[in-house]
User: Fold these one by one.
Assistant:
Number 1:
Amino acid sequence: RATLLLSRCLLKMVKGNIIVPEDILSFCCNGLQSSTSPPRAREPGEREEAPGAMASPSPARNPTEVQMSQLVLPCHTNHRGELSTGQLLKWIDTAACLSAERHAGCPCVTASMDDIYFEHTISVGQVVNIKAKVNRAFNSSMEVGIQVSYEDLCSGKHCSICKAYATFVAQGPLGSKVRLKPLTPQTEEEKIEYSIAAERRRMRLVHKDTLKDLLTRSPQETELETRDGSGAVPAERTRVESVELVLPPHANHQGNTFGGQIMAWMENVATIAASRLCHAHPTLRAIEMFHFRGPSQVGDRLVLKAIVNNAFKNRWVPVVGVPFPPSPRPSAPSSLLSGSMEVGVSAEAYGQEMSISCRHINSAFMTFVVLDQEGHPRTLPMVAPEPGDGERRYREASARKKIRLDRKYVVSCKQSEVPLSVPWDQSNKVYLSYNNVSALKMLVAKTNWVLAREKEKVRMYTLEEDKFLSFRIEMSACIPASRAFSLLSNLRRRHEWDSHYVSAELVQKVDDDDMIYHVVSQKLRNENKPQDFVILASRRKPCSKGDPYVVAFRSVTLPTHPARAEFTRGETLCSGFCIWPESEEMCKVAYYNQVMPGYLNYVTTNVAGLSSDICSTFEACEKFLLKNKEDLISRLQDF
């Protein structure tokens, strides 16, 4: 009450042009708390708050992190009272764009979006929580990681919806590119995302080539299926075309259409096309990786076209890491079939004169299902493609489905959920290489390593985590990092310094970065025959300054090299080298190996002997590097 009276007096003094003393003004603005209560002692480590600031007990977070919470209202939902996926895409793109602009300090546009798998639907009245932050900045583009979850305000339940990665490009005046400042990761999670972002970028760049390669090498797998076409629906019946006028609310402050708005419009026409096939209300389950080919501006007419490319009937087998359907049916017959369909959708931009040639903005492929009352996918009608382009789209949809399943299984699964020896083929080679390198980078980024032994220049660390025991052995060597990288990535020379290796045969040179070897090692204790391995070796040069050279190893399965009676087939989940330049003539070499549970008994009973053996092997590795430092033949093998 006293504060109110003083405020009224202050107002009268201001109206009467009476000068107000500064101490009275401060007293009226800050209230009586300071005069009636003693100042509260701050806790140790607590920062002094600025006047009017909200308390923030949590530690300082990533400066690029953006958090968005949206209450799902009826205007955001479809006829089932579920959040429209198009609306969710708009929110995702907005949060990611704001995060990118925080780092760039200038306007940014959406360049691409990786695969998105929607694990659950969101109902009206629930809250969507979106967290976005920049994982890594390259020259003029950056990767933004997005996590989406929903919150039920009544029950307090939280559930993950999807995880996505978007690429944004910073734009200067007149659309010129801006060179971005580097990002320095702080936490272990940020370091992992930072390191693997380079692998995801590499995978995006070869995405289109992967599809072309599969169609070229395996045409039989994507031929039209032999079916009874009596009940097939002509694909032409599912065709949809719609036009949208880009207005100021659809665009940013530079007049460029929001990427999320374009995605929302595309999802709308794709849903209509899917509905025309199944005569029901479909649910969007996945959006395949796509790229924006160019911008559109306020005043453009966007023509959106969609058509069902293919409908799939797949024997449903529950797979680790795949959340659909929500619960298995133990009593269901083995012939239970589930269905999904791929809808292709494109966006083209025109000016005011529609007759002028269009600008291609984006193409995307969306996977829909139709759920029954129990939430399981229903069987869908077959699609009869049109001759020519329709048959091409039909075959490409089959190829994309295979690639999509491989990518989801290999890339999205946790490292412990991927089988040790994944079958190698043309459709999953890019994703196995990604998994191989990213698994090693995740191991490198771990922070809780414990020093177990130090012998002269060789240091050995251990890491116990879940059911895995990992080793890290490192040393400094007087050799350029690029030379060490060349020597250590050639498994055919490993027997020269590693006594455990007997031989390594190059089975297949996939490309300059990935090779498959058949390795024979010495007999293990209590074994009467040697071990053999089929190993994928993936090597990477640094993506930017500060990155290491990487050589990663993991087991794969090749039909040409099955297990043989004269060997004990061994498997390795994650191992390899990281080499950091320390100067022009010095580098730090670190070897990592993640030990499987079956090896733990041997480790626990031979800790002293094992560590001594590992250190001796690494000392031999250093001698090998120094001996071959100026080897001309090895120099010629550099790439």
Number 2:
Amino acid sequence: GLFIYAATVCRFAREGGSLAGERLARLISTERLPARAGTELDRMYMTVLEYSLNTKLDPGEMARTQELFRRVAGSVVVLFDALSPASLAMLLGEPKETIASPLGSLHSLLDVPEEEGRLIRLLHPSFREFLLDPQRCAITDFYIDGKEAHKLLFECCLRIMASHLRQDMCDLRRPGTRVGDISRSQVNEKVPFAVHYACRYWVGHLERSDIDPQEHCGIADFLATRFLFWLEALALIGRLADGVAMIRILETRLHRTEKSPGLGAVVYDAKQLLLSHSSIIGEAPLQVYSSALVFSPEASIIRRLYMAQVPEWIVRAPALSEDWSGHLQTLSHPSVVRAVTVSPDGRLIVSGSDDNTVRVWDAVTGAERCVLKGHSSWVNAVAILPDGRLIVSGSRDNTVRVWDAVTDAERRVLKGHSGAVSAVAISPDGRLIVSGSDDNTVRVWDAVTGAERRVLKGNSSSVSAVAISPDGRLIVSGSRDNTVRVWDAATSAENNVLQVGAVLRYLSFSSCGKHLVTDRGVFQLPSSDCRCSRNVSATKSWITHDGKDLLYLHPDYQDSFGFLSDIILVFVGRISHALQLKLP
């Protein structure tokens, strides 16, 4: 606090020129306020601000000056990203000369650049905290109501988007033009930074204001007339994933009140369209007017609102389903995807592919977070640590690779298998990595050092799945020899062999550690004394419970199912449904 105080006082006095002494005297002689944390700093801020307003103005001019201060200073302290004076003026809808005066009077408190394009910045965050706190900013002429400041910027964002967004903003004309083929200078020229800012943050300002979106007609109008233009602009500036997050926030706010189901339906439909087509819109922005509309359901509200934007060379749209399915997004590798996992908190999706890469995706927005490169052949298996810090991948190149999920760096390459690695798992504490391979072995690795701890032998065919118990004491492996083997993690002893009669593609422990959950059923461990026994499995045509036939599967559903848990069967392929059981 002392350094901030001294630096601000020096700037304030220096800018007074020949009146520097008078300014210092004013600061020193100001009557002391009641002692409390921050008082000296607050007193100094108020003294500097008093000098920023010309008290000799007539009442009308004074009111306009105070209004400008609130618009300009209030915007600067609540902006989500710094703007240049020109961009701020454009966003606020004021001439640059008009905002120059309040900015110029605040040089002691703000870094106001003279060079074109440089950004306005607070000299210290404490000035923001001071202006937004009515207890600290005792002079009401200077107090900034945060909600009102966000409301102003929300309105400004809607206004500038309404006036600047249009179809084909960069005059590309070719609907298949890729974002990577458009120069940044062209994008910056057609999407000025003030518009860029509005596109990214209008929902953020709405969220922090006291505006009820149900009662603001501007939101419905924006969705009905500018929504696709907004998606195009976000794609051009590389921020389409922000759009997904913003629409989700808007949908959440609408659900809290549900006063206007009509607006809620539009927002839901907008979210579905964006999630379903974000991949191609992000790659080729103009596809938002062709592919995204043509391949959306016939009942889509956004499709009906924007069909006039469909290019004339599309003379007839295909007949599609009436409404949106449960399918939200498609996340694409350029080649076959062989492995997928989701982080325990549901925020990340990790996938491995025949393109030799591991990709990390934002599960909420669908945005590709990073591409992990290093394998020289197919990636067959992926796993992620419960806290999301480590990612492990197994490949046909016979290696296991450990990646830092935060920095995207390759931490270690684990070598020892003589065949393709087909399965990987990480212990809950992140200390052990287990891998299964076409060399018929299971190997246990130290996740920190990369050292090979143990080699577990016993399978007579390749290992297709591995898992570690919640307490880290047991390791299980599923093999193409139709068995599940249970190993002691400390001694490497083989405790049990379960004859499951099928090759398991998925294998994990239940939360209690007493059952094995697989894609062919749920099996109780032989040594378990758990009373909630759920030995549910399936043959080709029957679901069985404790070894007895329970439910016959119609031929249309055979060979197309997998277990999501011990009570839910998911049917995939030609027929996509779920069957839930309530077992005795």
Number 3:
Amino acid sequence: MRSLHASNAHLATWATWATCWAVVAGSTPSPAVVAEKHASELDLNCDSYEDGVDWSEVRKRLFEFLVNPSEPHPWLGSLLALGRTQTDCYIGLCCLGYLAMIFMSPEKRLKALMHTLFGSVPLWDQIPLSYWDTIHSRWPIFGLLEIVGAQVRDTSEAWELFWNQSVPAVPSDGARWDADGGVDGRFQEILEKQLATGAPLPSYTAIRFLSKTWPGCSFGKATAFLVLAERLLLVDSNVLTQAAKDFMALGEAQLDRCAVGRNVTVFEQMMSEWPFWGVLRRVEANERVKLPSEQLRTPPQYMSPVLRPAAGLHQPGGFQHPSSSDVAKPKDGNIQTISRACEARDVHVALSGDGRHMEGLLAAMQSLILGTKAAERVCVHVFALKAEVTGLLAAFRCSFEGRLDQEDAGGEYDFRIDGVGVQIHIFTESEVLTDDLVVDAGVTLETGDLNAPHNFVRFYLAKWISASRIVYLDTDVIVKGDVCELHDMAFQSSREAVLAAVPRRHLPLSFYLKVFSPKMPIWLPSTAPSFNAGVMVIDMKLWERLNVTNAVLKWARQNKDRDLWRHGSQPPLLLLLYDRTEWIPDVWNVDGRSLSWIGLLPSQLD
């Protein structure tokens, strides 16, 4: 590669400052923090931001730089200075960080890559988007990675670190990180010549290479898949655009899965001679990706019957329409009779939390009761293990002394509080928690005890509650509106929705699900919004008709090796019901605080 123009001595200083915004100052953010930060972006190209920066001009300058990186550019200093900008334009800042590395000394560049999120983690942990959607954001991240990678491979110190620290994880268990002569070497040579001349990359050569190379994972196969994606994008065809996206996803999976047991880091990818980033740089520069991946689940104007995924997987939407014999029938005695406290009530609310969540449960109950305008409509169903019942009843009597009416309610576990009916349901752990649903110990250390049986009660509500519609609330919720209004407004716009919930547009499905796992359904749109299952309305009739509970257990069995998700009860709902969920206004679930505020935004609480 030609040496870069560096006549301005201050560029190295700007480079260091620009990188310090996220990586050098004190402590390095964890990958989870970065993923959450980026996932908060609704406008990925940042054109609508009002932070004093013309981000469209920044993108234009970055592409200009990539056309002639070794030429002098008078605006480079001011561009690098933007790395210190206080902004939420996260991908833009990542691009500026890599731009800064280009002008660092080899020692500083290597240090930044080895000890920060720019190189020490998989690309996904830095930018949690698919390659397709990263390119669709219009930021030239892959072109910048290509230049930095070429610079890093040119230093002996990088190779020493790579062989001493990285290699044992990269080519293990048969994965191929770099070309190994023979068919690999010949294909790599052709690619380098074509990229150097700017000529179209030969699709027939890529296909021949894929047919002759070895069957295991390799960066060479990744490059071949990306070549095929670029070739298909040259043709203006909706169907071929869909196929191009699929080839790009295959290439991405080869790159990210070549290290058995974990994903490959950006630094490790930089040390490969395969020009996969060069191929993606051409796709970026030509602006061939015009649609986000969520719009390509089925090719536009595709009139053939809906394609079904591989045998054993559900069709899009997560369900095969069951026959009447397939619909799960409640076991005798599972659905309890409605207590006297809940007679003639149509708004049913479910809450479940163990002793550690007792204060939250009581606060949720108090706020729900105070916000309800028609107490005679509401029945709250509280779930407890047998060992928890005595303490739960004592807490209710203490907290709602003088307001709790048990005389006319019909039993010890049925009572009213300010007119709102309350029914306590006793369940056993074996009724809701199977070995298939148990969460890894490592995850529970990160997020708390997701193996608590209460987390899985939501899948079995039909055992205890006979209602056509149920409002489910987590015990960390403060209700600032009328739960009857939430109940009544749900399912007004969709007859096919099983759930009604607030979308988390800043957290795509790929934040919770391992979208590139070979076991993941091919129809899953990785960038579709997720939702918080801690506040939702459930259409119980449709839930039962579609046999959702059994579908959850089926997918949990397929997730035995944690190939689909790691966390507990929310991911299977996202996988099965992402397109069977009706979005309700954000005001009904204002999260991001220690508690979720339901019904009113925090600014309205004063």
